[in-house]
């Protein structure tokens, strides 16, 4: 399965810790991330990640293109709802696209953990048939 990983600046450490905790599950899948988030995850979790450009330099558009072409199966976008910076990716585009193309999306740690455990159990295999 193709898993997208994105995090606002204030949530990047949380994303790193999430990926360390679930490394055993994540390493079984194809991982995609915006540039900075991907590099930070690779540095601590020893996972192989396809890195797009930084989110504000076009990485979010690259991920959006995968979503629009039904090539993304799950997106984890840990966002800061209180103080996103101007240069950070806009979560609304990702939410709209995931809703339009039936891509499971987590925007907080609780939902991310539920989805990653569902991924491990095989609960998202319907995505393969959907594609």
List the helices and strands and how they pair.
Layout (H helix, E strand, L loop, with lengths): L1 E6 L4 H10 L1 H4 L3 E4 L1 H11 L3 E3 L7 H10 L5 E5 L12 H10 L4 E2 L2 H13 L4 H5 L1
Parallel strand pairs: 1-2, 1-4, 2-3, 4-5
Helix pairs in contact: 1-3, 4-5
Explain this structure to me?
The chain is of the alpha/beta class and 131 residues long. It has a domain at 1-72 and 93-107: 3-Layer(aba) Sandwich (Rossmann fold), CATH 3.40.50. The chain is 48% helix and 15% strand. The protein has seven helices and five strands. A five-stranded parallel beta sheet has the order 3-2-1-4-5, with helices on both faces. It is globular and about 40 Å long.
Q: So what's the CATH class of the domain at 1-72 and 93-107?
A: Alpha Beta
Write down the Rg.
Answer: 13 Å
Q: In the CATH scheme, what's the topology name of the domain at 1-72 and 93-107?
A: Rossmann fold
Average pLDDT figure: 92
The helix/strand series, from N terminus to C terminus, equals EHHEHEHEHEHH
Strand content: 15-25%
Low-confidence stretches: none
Concise structural overview:
With 131 residues, the protein is an alpha/beta fold. The chain has seven helices and five strands. The chain has a domain of 87 residues: Rossmann fold (3-Layer(aba) Sandwich), CATH 3.40.50.1380.
């Amino acid at each position: 399965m193709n898993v997208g990983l994105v995090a606002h600046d204030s949530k990047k450490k949380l994303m790193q810790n999430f990926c360390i905790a679930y490394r055993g599950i994540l390493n079984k899948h194809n991982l995609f991330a915006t540039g900075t988030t991907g590099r930070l995850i690779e540095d601590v979790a020893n996972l192989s990640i396809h890195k797009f450009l930084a989110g504000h330099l076009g990485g979010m558009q690259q991920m959006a293109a995968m979503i629009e072409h039904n090539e993304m199966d799950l997106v984890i976008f840990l966002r800061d709802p209180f103080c996103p910076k101007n240069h950070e990716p806009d979560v609304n585009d990702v939410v709209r696209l995931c809703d339009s193309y039936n891509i499971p999306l987590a925007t907080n740690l609780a939902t991310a953990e539920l989805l990653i455990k569902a991924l491990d159990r095989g609960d998202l295999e319907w995505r393969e048939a959907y594609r």
